[in-house]
């Protein structure tokens, strides 16, 4: 709005004023950063002087360091000369003190060897005592193991006795359960018979119910027939009466037209002595025809009802004949009265018996399971008994080995004990304060060598000897240590006395060299002092006129001057740019304010409420558009993901489509569903080859049976391309040269064709199977449809098959065949519902 633009102009005008003031201040400070530039140039010219000052300082420091090092060297040379003189004097006094060294060395060495020998003997005694004690411990362990094995063997014997008693009890139990399998089998057989009887009773019950329903249906059909017959008889009487009345009326009508002298149209006579008289009520021909139609319809209905009743009665009689035998067999009575009750009673008793048998079978099964469990446990116990026997044998062998080991250990212990006694007596064990105890130990050893007292006494004796030997060994070790220290000390004194002569000469020579080097060092020290003073004068001259202590401070000050100058220039440029920008923005605001004032003068009054409504509508539209934008964005994201998936899978889809097209074409070809072509499956195509061969073999007989009239042929062209084809069969009629479907043959001709195909199939199987022959075949029925000539031809064809080793059987009721067949099996039904067979040759 105009007010907003004016407010912006006022703000921008204030901002411009501030920017110009800033620009003025920065312009006034221009002389400051020009002065900084001059100072920086002057300081930059002094930088090489600082480099020369640093070089002079480094040389002065080096000279001072050389001087200090030479002074230190002088001190060391002085100390070295003094120390060498003192060392030589000390060594001369030590040489005088060692004048008598080495006089007692041989005595010390002999005593040291004697003490070491005694120590070795004492250590051997301790080792023997340790070995004897270890043997005793091992013997005790073996004795404990032997006792444990003995206890195990006794426990094993007790366990074997318990196991034997348990096995004997289990054998008795198995003997009691011995017949469980036979009892179960017998019960299962009885249960199967009872179930069959139950099934037979159930079927018998259903059949009796069916017979009852059939009889009820027959009774209803009989009643319908009686009513229909009565109605037909009544309508027949009415029709006969109407017919007579109609005929009588026709004679009367004809007599009315007779004239004397003219011939009668019926008899031709010209005399009419007694013309017929027309009755008073004569039915019309239409009424007579209606009466006849009613009578014929009623008669037809009565005949149908009679046939239905007869069929019902036949079905009921057949069912009764079928059921009566089984009813008598299963219930003991052939009558149908109360048959349902008897059957239900028998079914209840059978169900009770079945449950008893199932309970018995379950008990037998449990006995069998128990027997199997007991047999399994018996096998386990027998296996355990075998294992216990083996364990007993192993324990006996282990006890034998343990007894042998104990004997061996006792022998070794006795030998070691004797050796320990000898060693202790040889050593004497004469230590200070131990002679009485040692004497007792020796006496005990002497006594134990001959009498072998109890093991406890031996252990105590061995412990006392071990303690005494340990104490003596400790004393001997201390003596050896003292002797070794004295020997080593004496040997060191002798060696030191020999070394001192050379050391004294070396110390005196070192003192002389140190004094010479001290004189040279003092000369060099004077020259270095002079050099140092000269460099200090040069350093003082180089530092005059410089404003800073070192180059780093000068460089830091130079960088600070340059930074301050650059900051001042940058601030001036920024203030100038911001002032220009504010002037441009202010000019733009003035232009917009002018345009708005002009538009305001030209504009019409504005309806604020309408503008507010438009604003509200536009905000709502914007909200709707925002929601739509969000939905579109979501859809774009989802569609983008879908597009990526489609692109990633399109290649795979194309490959699958190509493969599918190939597989589909192959499947359509194999399935016989190729569009526009005959529907022949691969299986049918293979069968066509064999079918042609079978037809070829069949025609050799079909031509004979049909007297050369017919020949079979597979149809090569399908009737249409909609249904499966390839195995349709046609027949060629050689009498008239036509080809038609095999379905047009008569019944006898169809039988001949079927028989020929069966024989052709038999021949083809024999030719392909290799080694398989169909030497026997039976032909069931079909001969009744043949006329005399066709029958003769069929018999001749079958007779030709029997000329080899093939047997052909014919099942038929045709009397002519009965006379032609020599060997027969005649089956005759009897009245009891069975049949009997008779072989005739």
UniProtKB/TrEMBL annotation:
Q: What is this protein called?
A: Nuclease SbcCD subunit C
Residue spans making up a coiled coil are 347-390, 466-628
Name the keywords, alphabetized: Coiled coil
**Could you tell me which residues belong to the region Disordered?**
1-35, 129-161, 275-324, 428-462
Keyword Coiled coil on this protein? Answer: yes
Q: Where is the composition biased (Basic and acidic residues)?
A: 289-304
Question: What InterPro entries does this protein map onto?
Answer: P-loop_NTPase
**Top-rank lineage group of the source organism:** Bacteria
SUPFAM superfamilies, sorted: P-loop containing nucleoside triphosphate hydrolases
Protein's UniProt keywords contain tRNA-binding: no
Gene3D superfamilies linked: P-loop containing nucleotide triphosphate hydrolases
Subunit and partners = Heterodimer of SbcC and SbcD.
- Family to which this protein belongs: Belongs to the SMC family. SbcC subfamily.
Organism of provenance: Candidatus Lachnoclostridium stercorigallinarum
């Amino acid at each position: 709005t105009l007010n907003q633009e004016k407010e912006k102009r006022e703000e921008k005008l204030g901002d411009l004023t501030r920017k110009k003031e800033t620009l003025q201040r920065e312009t006034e400070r221009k002389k400051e950063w020009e002065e900084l530039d001059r100072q920086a140039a002057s300081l930059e010219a002094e930088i090489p002087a600082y480099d020369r000052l640093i070089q002079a300082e480094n040389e002065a420091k080096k000279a001072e360091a050389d001087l200090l090092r030479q002074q230190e060297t002088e001190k060391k040379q002085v100390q070295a000369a003094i120390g060498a003189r003192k060392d030589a004097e000390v060594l001369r006094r030590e040489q005088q003190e060692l004048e008598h060294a080495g006089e007692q060395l041989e005595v010390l060495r002999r005593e040291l060897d004697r003490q070491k020998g005694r120590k070795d003997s004492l250590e051997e005694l301790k080792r023997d005592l340790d070995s004897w004690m270890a043997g005793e411990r091992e013997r005790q362990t073996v004795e404990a193991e032997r006792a444990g094995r003995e206890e195990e063997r006794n426990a094993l014997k007790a366990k074997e006795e318990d196991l034997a008693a348990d096995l004997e009890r289990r054998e008795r139990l198995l003997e009691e359960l011995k017949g469980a399998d036979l009892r179960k089998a017998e019960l299962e057989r009885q249960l199967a018979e009872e179930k069959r009887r139950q099934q037979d009773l159930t079927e018998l019950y259903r059949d009796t119910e069916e017979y009852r329903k059939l009889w009820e249906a027959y009774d209803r059909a009989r009643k319908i027939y009686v009513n229909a017959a009565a109605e037909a008889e009544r309508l027949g009487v009415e029709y006969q009466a109407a017919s007579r009345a109609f005929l009588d009326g026709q004679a009367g009508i004809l007599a009315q037209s007779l004239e004397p002298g003219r011939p009668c149209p019926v008899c031709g006579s010209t005399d009419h002595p007694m013309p017929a008289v027309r009755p008073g009520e004569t039915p019309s021909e239409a009424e007579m025809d209606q009466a006849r139609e009613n009578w014929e319809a009623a008669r037809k209905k009565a005949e149908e009802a009679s046939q239905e009743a007869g069929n019902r009665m036949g079905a009921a009689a057949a069912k009764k004949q079928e059921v009566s035998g089984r009813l008598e067999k299963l219930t003991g009575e052939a009558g149908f009265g109360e048959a349902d009750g008897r059957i239900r009673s028998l079914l209840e008793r059978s169900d009770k018996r079945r449950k008893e048998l199932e309970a018995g079978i379950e008990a037998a099964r449990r006995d069998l399971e128990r027997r199997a469990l007991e047999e399994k446990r018996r096998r386990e116990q027998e296996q355990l008994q075998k294992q216990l026997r083996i364990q007993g044998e192993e324990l006996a062998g282990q006890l034998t080995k343990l007894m042998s080991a104990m004997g061996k250990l006792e022998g070794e212990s006795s030998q070691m004990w004797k050796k320990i006694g000898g060693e202790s007596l040889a050593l004497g064990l004469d230590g200070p304060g131990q002679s009485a105890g040692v004497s007792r130990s020796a006496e005990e050893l002497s006594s134990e060598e001959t009498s072998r007292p109890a093991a406890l006494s031996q252990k105590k004796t061995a412990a006392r000897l071990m303690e005494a030997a340990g104490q003596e060994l400790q004393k001997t070790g201390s003596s050896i240590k003292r002797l070794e220290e004295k020997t080593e000390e004496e040997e060191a004194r002798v060696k030191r006395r020999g070394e001192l002569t050379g050391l004294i000469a070396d110390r005196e020579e070192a003192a002389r060299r140190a004094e010479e080097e001290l004189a040279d060092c003092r000369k060099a020290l004077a020259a270095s002092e002079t050099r140092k003073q000269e460099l200090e004068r040069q350093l003082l001259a180089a530092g005059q006129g410089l404003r800073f202590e070192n180059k780093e401070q000068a460089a830091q000050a130079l960088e600070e001057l340059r930074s301050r100058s650059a900051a001042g220039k940058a601030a001036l440029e920024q203030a100038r740019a911001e002032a220009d920008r504010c002037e441009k923005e202010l000019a733009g605001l003035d232009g917009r304010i002018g345009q708005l004032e002009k538009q305001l003068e030209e504009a019409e009054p504005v309806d604020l409420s309408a503008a507010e409504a438009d604003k509200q509508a536009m905000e709502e539209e914007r909200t709707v558009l925002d929601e739509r934008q969000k939905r579109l964005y979501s859809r774009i994201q989802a569609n983008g993901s879908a597009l990526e998936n489609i692109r990633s899978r399109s290649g795979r889809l194309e490959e699958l489509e190509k493969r599918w097209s190939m597989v589909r074409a192959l499947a359509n070809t194999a399935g016989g569903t190729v569009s526009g072509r005959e529907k022949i499956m691969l299986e049918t195509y293979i069968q066509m080859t064999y079918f042609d061969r079978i037809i070829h073999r069949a025609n050799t007989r079909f031509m004979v049976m049909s007297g050369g009239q017919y020949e079979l042929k597979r149809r090569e062209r399908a009737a249409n391309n909609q249904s499966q084809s390839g195995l349709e069969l046609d027949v060629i009629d050689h009498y008239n040269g036509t080809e038609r479907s095999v379905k047009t043959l008569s019944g006898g001709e169809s039988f001949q064709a079927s028989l020929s195909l069966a024989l052709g199939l038999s021949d083809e199987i024999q030719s392909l199977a290799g080694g398989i022959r169909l030497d026997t075949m039976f032909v069931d029925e079909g001969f009744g449809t043949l006329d005399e000539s066709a029958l003769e031809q069929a018999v001749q064809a079958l007779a030709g098959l029997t000329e080899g080793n093939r047997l052909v059987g014919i099942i038929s009721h045709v009397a002519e065949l009965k006379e032609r067949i020599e060997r027969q099996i005649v089956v005759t039904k009897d009245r009891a519902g069975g049949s009997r067979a008779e072989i005739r040759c």
